[in-house]
Amino acid sequence: MRALLICATTLSMAALGQDGQKLIQGSDCSSCHALDRQVVGPAYSEIAKRYAGQADAANKLAAKIRDGGGGMTPHPDLTDAQRAEMVKWILSQAAAAPGQAESKSYDYTLKDGTKVQLDFPLFVEGNGPKVTKDVFHGYQLYNSYCYRCHGTDATGGQLGPDLRRSLATGMKQQDFLSVAMTGRKEQGMPAWAGFLSEKDVVDIFKYVKGRSLDLVPSGRPPSEQD
Ligand code: HEC
Ligand code: HEC
Q1: If you count Cβ atoms within 10 Å of the first and of the last residue's Cβ in the chain, which end, N or C, has fewer?
Q2: Average pLDDT estimate for 37-65
Q3: Residue 193: which of 45, 27, 65 has the closest Cα?
Q4: Can you give the pLDDT at residue 169?
Q5: Residue 125, exposed/middle/buried by CB under 10 A (0-12, 13-18, 19+)?
Q6: Do 106-212 and 17-91 fall under one CATH topology?
Q7: In angstroms, how far apart are the furthest CA atoms of the chain?
Q8: Is 215:110 a contact under the CB 8 Å cutoff?
Q9: Burial of 16 by CB count in 10 Å (0-12 exposed, 13-18 middle, 19+ buried)?
Q10: Which residue has a Cα nearest atom 41 of ligand 2?
C-alpha cells in the first residue's frame, strides 16, 4: 500500500515536471530573487555558495521558505516535498556567474535648470516628450494598482504617502523594490510579490522617478507606441 502511494506521487510529480526550478517559477520567488544578482533577497548562487558543505543547510533553507521573515514572504501552502525540491535546485546553483550590471547613463535638465543623471532613459529622445515603453508601462501599472492610495499620477493620496516625495528625499530603486514587494502590512501597504514582477515594479519606479523630477507630466504621457 505504502509503496503504491509513493509510486503514484513520484509519477504525478514527474508527469507535471515539478522539479525545483519549475516550482520556483510557479511561485512568487522571482519577484524577489534572481539566479545571479540581488533583487529584494539574495541571489540563488549566493545562497548556494553561503551554504555549500553545511550539513543542515537543506533543512534550514526549507524552514526559511516555509516561515519567511526578514522581508521574505512565508509559504505555508507549499508541501514539505515541494520546499525540499526548491532547496535542492537553489543549492545546485553555486557555479552561476555574477550578472553584468549595465552602466550607461542619461542626462536630463530639470525645469529649474538643474542637471540630473539617471541610469535609465525616461524618453525615447532627449528631454521628451515621448516616454520609453518601460516608463509608459510604469504609468499604466501605477494608475491600475497604486493610485488608489498614492494618488492618481503619483500626486499623493489620502491613504498612502506621496511617492514623488519619497524619491526626492533619497529613496533608491532598491528600497522602492523592497517595500513594494514585501509591503508594510501593519501600515496598510500591501505586498506585491507574486502579483507584480521585478520588471513591473522597476517600471513603476521609473515612472514615479520621472514624475518626481517633474520631467514626466501628469495624465497619460505621450509614448513611443503612439
Ligand atoms: C517579498 C520578497 C521575497 C519573496 C516573495 C521570496 N523571498 Fe526569499 N528572501 C527574501 C529576503 C529579503 C531574504 C533575506 C531574508 C533574511 O536575510 O532574513 C530571503 C531569503 C531567502 C532564503 C534564505 C537565504 C539565506 O541565506 O538564509 C531562501 C532559501 C529563499 N529566500 C528562497 C525563496 C524561495 C524559494 C521563494 C519562493 C517560494 C522566496 N524566497 C520568495 C525575499 C523574498
Ligand atoms: C491599500 C493602499 C496602498 C496601495 C494600493 C499601495 N500602497 Fe504603497 N503604501 C501605502 C501606505 C499606507 C504606505 C506607508 C507605509 C508606512 O507608513 O511605512 C505605503 C508606502 C509605500 C512605499 C514606501 C514609501 C516611503 O516613503 O517609505 C512605496 C515605495 C510604495 N508604497 C509603493 C507602492 C507601489 C509601487 C504600489 C502599487 C504597485 C503601492 N505602493 C500601492 C499604501 C498603499
Answers
A1: N
A2: 96
A3: 27
A4: 96
A5: exposed
A6: yes
A7: 78
A8: yes
A9: exposed
A10: 146
**Does 164 sit in the ligand 1 pocket, CB within 6 Å?**
no
Cis geometry, peptide bond prior to residue 129 (ω within 30 degrees of 0): yes
- Give 51 Cα–ligand 2 centroid separation in angstroms: 34
Quick one: pLDDT at residue 140?
Answer: 98
pLDDT of residue 4 exceeding 70: no
- Could you tell me the pTM of the whole model? 0.90
Q: Which fold has domain 106-212?
A: Cytochrome Bc1 Complex; Chain D, domain 2 (1.10.760)
Q: Spell out the residues 6+ positions from residue 178 whose beta carbon is closer than 8 angstroms to its own.
A: 40, 71
Residue that is written with C-alpha cell 535609465 in the block: 120
Q: Count CB neighbours of 146 within 10 A.
A: 24
